């Protein structure tokens, strides 16, 4: 069928001419593919074409790459934040365990010191633990977990492994209040160990956790570093227990007497366990004669 003037013939239009053109194109394409496959003549052309097309590919993939990188960065930052938080928690837990271990070791050491003091005293003692501390600046008192039901009485001396701490001033069924040596209302008869001089050690009125020795004659031999021990006078505290150490000696305003300040021997601000002293009954009469086990037994009298 002839084409009318003005009509455009296409590759796939019906007719013999169109079919012939199609066959020619297909044959040419086949020849080009065979020649290229055997000789690789179009490889360079395809390489240059790929260089021209590659920026278009990268530009098209840019939004997807940016979104992927953003998700990776956010996920990595979240993972780092979570890991950092876990590491901080682990560090705090390890530090808490270490502090607890140090506290337990210190407590065991204090208990060991108390047990050794209990064995070396040769007196009847009772262990107690601190329950509360009176923080009033004008008072220095503790509450312990022993009372009348455990045999505690008013006036009972309280010590730790280092020396005298105070005495019981109030007793309840299961608790007791202890007045410390440094309480302004406390007084204890003491002896200067080096010279044997007797005096009274009072609680410091200026809330410095010290002991004050007042009205000491200026002629008395009192020096910094002298040890104070209980004198046993008054019958409240047994003699020979450490009380404190002189840290300062100075004359008063009149110049006739001296005043000394002493640091308590007991760990008043650190002890969490204390010992209560009990009076031991004193034996009456002469001591019983000791029997020599190596001596022969006397023969019975017939």
Automatic annotation (TrEMBL):
Family statement drawn from the similarity comment of this UniProt entry: Belongs to the MreC family.
GO cellular component annotations of the record: plasma membrane
Protein name, UniProt field: Cell shape-determining protein MreC
Tagged with keyword Amino-acid biosynthesis: no
Annotated Rod shape-determining protein MreC beta-barrel core domain residues: 134-277
Xref: Pfam families: MreC
Job description of the protein: Involved in formation and maintenance of cell shape.
Region Disordered, residue ranges: 280-302
TM annotation in the entry: 12-35
Keyword set, alphabetical order: Cell shape, Membrane, Transmembrane, Transmembrane helix
Gene3D superfamilies found in the cross-reference section: Rod shape-determining protein MreC, domain 1 (2.40.10.340), Rod shape-determining protein MreC, domain 2 (2.40.10.350)
Keyword check for Transmembrane: yes
Superkingdom as given in the UniProt entry: Bacteria
Any one of the GO BP annotations: regulation of cell shape
Native species: Dokdonella koreensis DS-123
